[in-house]
Amino acid sequence: MKTAVATALLAAVASYAAPTKRAVTDTDILQYALTLEHLENAFYHGFLDQFDDAAFTNAGFPDWVRGRVKNIAEHEAQHVALLSGALGSAATQPCTYSFPTVTDPKSFMALATVIENVGVSAYLGAASSIMESAYVTVAGSILTTEARHQAWLNSAVEKAAAWSGPEDTPLDFDEVYSIASAFITSCPSTNPTLPVKAFPALTIGTDGTITTTASTAGTYVQLIQGLETNVFPVVNGKVQGLPTTQGIAYAVLTTQANSTLVGDDNILAGPMIFNAPFNSKQSNPAPSF
Ligand SMILES: *[C@@H]1O[C@H](CO)[C@@H](O)[C@H](O)[C@H]1NC(C)=O
C-alpha cells in the first residue's frame, strides 16, 4: 500500500542521509544502548540521592516534580534490566561518571533534558542498523518513553516547548558516543569493547569562532536538526552564516561539503549541542535556515 502520504514520506526519507551503515552486530547495538542506559540510570539515581524533596522545593519546583523524576529514574533502571537480561553474560557493566555542570536541582533538570534528547537521537540513529526485527520493537518502545521523559522535562519543568521541531534528530554511533563519553570517567576493564569512538570536542563561539583540537583546514560545519542537515563553510577558523537555532540542534566539524553525506566517516570534531528552548507560549517560528 503506497498512499500519497507514504510516497511523500518515502521521498523525504530518500533525500535524508541514513546514518552510515557499519559492521555492527545487534549485540554491539544492545551493549551500546546499555552503555547509555547505565549512564542515565546513574545520573538520575545519583542526583536524586543528593537532592532531596527540600532541595527541589528550595529550587522553586512544585512538590510533585521530584516524585515524577523518581519515576523516570525507575524507568531507566528498568531499561538497564531489560537490556542486561537480553545480553546475559555479555551485558555491559556500569562505569563511573562525572556531570560537572550539575550543582543543584535546577542544573540537574537542565542536563536531564539534554541527556534525554541524546537518548532519543541514539535509538533513532541506531534503528536502521538493527538486524533482528524484534529488537526494533524493544528499542522503539524505549525510544518513545525517552521522548516522553524529554517532553515532560522540557515542558513542565523548563517551561520550554516539549519538542525541537516536527522530526527528532537521529545521530550516528560515534556522534552519540562523543557526547556520552564526556560524562564517563572510567569503565570496568572487563566491559565489552564497542566499535565506537569519540571525536574531539567542538566549541563554536557566538561570533562563529571554532575551538577544537582537530584541524579546521578545508572543513565545514554541518548543523543537524530533525531530518535536516545544513552545511556552512569554515573560513580562517570561523564558521560562516551559522543561524540561531531553537530547540536542540547538533553541530559537527567535517571534511564533507555535501549535507546528505555527513556522518561518522567524515566527522572531525563534535557534536556541539545547541540547546535554546523556545517559549512554549509562542508558536514555533519557521526554522531560520
Ligand atoms: C550529495 O550526495 C548525494 C548522495 O550521494 C548526491 O545524490 C548529491 O548529488 C550530492 N550533492 C551534491 C551537491 O554534490
From TrEMBL:
Transmembrane segments: none annotated. Keywords: Signal. Coiled coil: none annotated. Residues 1-17 form the signal peptide. Pfam families: Ferritin_2 (PF13668). Gene3D superfamilies: 1.20.1260.10. This is Rds1p-like stress response protein.
